[in-house]
Write the C-alpha cells for this entry.
Amino acid sequence: MSDKTNPAFTEAVDWDLETRLVRGGTRRSEFGETAEALFLTSGYVYESADSAEARFNGEEDGFMYSRYGNPTVQMFEDRMALLEDAETCFATASGMAAVWAALISQLKTGDHVVAARALFGSCHHILTKIFPKFGIEATLIDGTDINQWRGAVRPNTKVFFFETPSNPTLEIIDIPAVVEIAHKAGATVVVDNVFSTPILQQPIRLGADISVYSGTKHIDGQGRTLGGAVLCSNAFRKDHLEPFMRHTGGCLSPFNAWVLLKGLETLDLRVQRQCENAQRIAEFLESHDKIGRVIYPGLASHPQHALAARQMSGFGTLVSFDVKGGKEAAFKLLNGLEIVDISNNLGDTKSLITHPYTTTHRAMEEADRAALGIGQGLVRISAGIESASNLIGDLGQALDAV
C-alpha cells in the first residue's frame, strides 16, 4: 500500500536524510503516541460487505490482511523508500527474502541473469543451484570489469544483479556504468546495498531499478530481529512484487517492522561511528607484520578506492584481511579476542568477526572461493561503535598470540 499519495510520505520529501530517518512515514493514531504504534493484528474489519468487496477490487483504500499490508509495516516501508527517493518499498521477512522476491518475481523459464561473481554465499546459491531448477540461466562475471558486463549480455538477459561493496572481499562496482549497459539491453538492475547502507550509498539515485536490504544488519543494527526491504518503482511493485508476495507469504511481521523503525532513528549516527572505527582498524592492520592483504575501500591500496570515494559518502563498516598462516592462524586470532565477538552477522553496534571460508561462504565450490580471493586465512570484521582504541588493542593482543 506504500506510495507517494500517503501524506506522511509526501511531506517528508523535502526533509534531509537525518530527519527522514527519524520522522519519515510516521502516522499517529487518535491517541497521539510519540513512538510509532505497533499494530499486532492479522486481519481487519469492514464497515460493510460492500466495503470489503471494494477493497478486494482495489476500488477502496484500506488494509485487508497483514500478509498484504499492515499500518506498522507501511510506516517502515515509507521511511525506507524516502531514504533513496524510491517510489515505494515492500518489506520482507528477511534480507534473503528480499533478494529472492526482487529476482524471482520478474523472471521465468528461459530468462538469463548477469551477476557479479562476488556475492554472499546464499545469493550465489540462488543463482547457481536454485535458478537452474527453474530453467533460468545465470552468468557470473568479474563485476569490476565493465567490459565483462557488456560481453555477457544475451537477447534473453532480463536482470543484472550485484552487491557493492561485495561480501566479503569488498569489491566496488560502478553502479551508473553498469546501469547504462543494462538499460541499453532492456534489463533491470538489482543492487544488494546491504554493506553500504542507505546512509553511504543510494543505488536508485544512481540509476538502479531496485535496491534490496537486509534490515537484520545495520538497519536494526543491534542483533534483535530479522527483516528485509525491496525499494523499487510503483509499477514493479504492482506488476511483480505484490502478486508474488501476496501468494507466497514472505512478509515482514509488524513487531519486526516496529523494531526496524526504531533502528532507523539511530542508523546515521551508528554508521558514521562504525565507518570511523573501520578506517582506524584497517590502517592498524595494514601496518601489522602478521597481516597480509587488507581490504577496505578507505585505504589507498584498495583497487577501487577512487570509485568508492566518488560513489559512496563513506567507505563502509566492514574490513577484510588475510592473516598470515592460513586457517590455523586465523582461528588463533578469532579465539584470542576478548572484546570482538565471533559471529557471522554484521552491521551490529557490537564489533563482530567471522571466518568466511568456514561459515558464510562454506558451501561454495573451492574454485569459486579461490576466484573471489576467499582463502583460509581471510577474516572479516564488522566494526561496531565501541572505542576504536579498545578494538585495536584487542586485535593487537590477539595477534600477539598468533
